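>> received
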Amino acid sequence: MRAILDTNVFISGLFFKGPPYEILKAWQNGKFDLVISPNILEEYRRVGRALNAKYSAVNIQPILEFITVHSIIISDSLLSQQVSKDPDDDKFITCALSSKSKLIVSGDHDLLDISGYKGIKIVKPRTFIDEYLSKR
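>> returned
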């Protein structure tokens, strides 16, 4: 199973406990394949470094390096038209379309509102755990 994690889910999993943390652990344990694009990775880096300034106990660099080795990296592409209300969210949709992934994990309402677009399900972290990970 392939899944794309929006930035808030990924970063929350690094810095805090709860469902996003459980999702990252499941990925590290091989329960699903994480799919990213260079734009997504750059956003992970940018947001992670900003939060790292506040929570210096977490060193994100090794985790980012782990991602580049242990995830599926898909080339960035552009949509012919904006899909999400927030154009910054379209990178997750393009990644899903380019990789033929059918699942994005997000708590972002703009992304959740477009669940079903071209067959892509967008689910909250708890739903992902309950409906996808607990069955594996």
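>> Strands lie at 2-5, 33-36, 72-73, 103-105, 121-123.
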